[in-house]
Design goal:
Elements: E1 3-7, E2 10-13, E3 18-25, E4 34-39, E5 46-51, E6 57-59, E7 67-72, E8 77-82, E9 91-97, E10 100-101, E11 105-110
Parallel strand pairs: 2-11
Antiparallel strand pairs: 1-3, 3-8, 4-5, 4-9, 5-6, 7-8, 9-10, 9-11
Length: about 110
């Protein structure tokens, strides 16, 4: 059974950085793609970034140049590095692997 756990959220001032982690268990890490989503109160869920099993990455337009995704096979973990954070990045961020999502981690960016 696939299990996904996110961590690394918090409160940061605008312009700051955070690194989120997504740990997956119960599956072969190397064959999976990982997707990061976020959802803010009253807004629809949106795909922020994704990384394929081969390491290819895609980003939502507002994240391009600010967010970066990497994977560490030894730790079965994918990271979302978020730089130059803006108040509009405030949301709950969660990771999806094989259709399974974690509980999410809250990111709050103060102006």
């Amino acid at each position: 059974q696939v299990q996904v756990a996110e961590s690394g959220g918090g409160l940061v001032q605008a312009g700051g950085s955070l690194r989120l982690s997504c740990a997956a268990s119960g599956t072969s890490f190397r064959i999976n793609s990982f997707s990061w989503y976020r959802q803010a109160p009253g807004k629809e869920r949106e795909l922020v970034a994704a990384i394929s099993s081969g390491g290819s990455t895609t980003f939502e337009d507002s994240a391009k140049g600010r967010f970066f995704v990497s994977r560490d096979g030894d730790k079965n973990t994918v990271y979302l590095q978020m730089n130059s954070l803006k108040p509009e990045d405030t949301a709950t961020y969660f990771c999806v692997v094989q259709g399974v999502r974690g509980q999410g981690t809250q990111v709050t960016v103060s102006s």
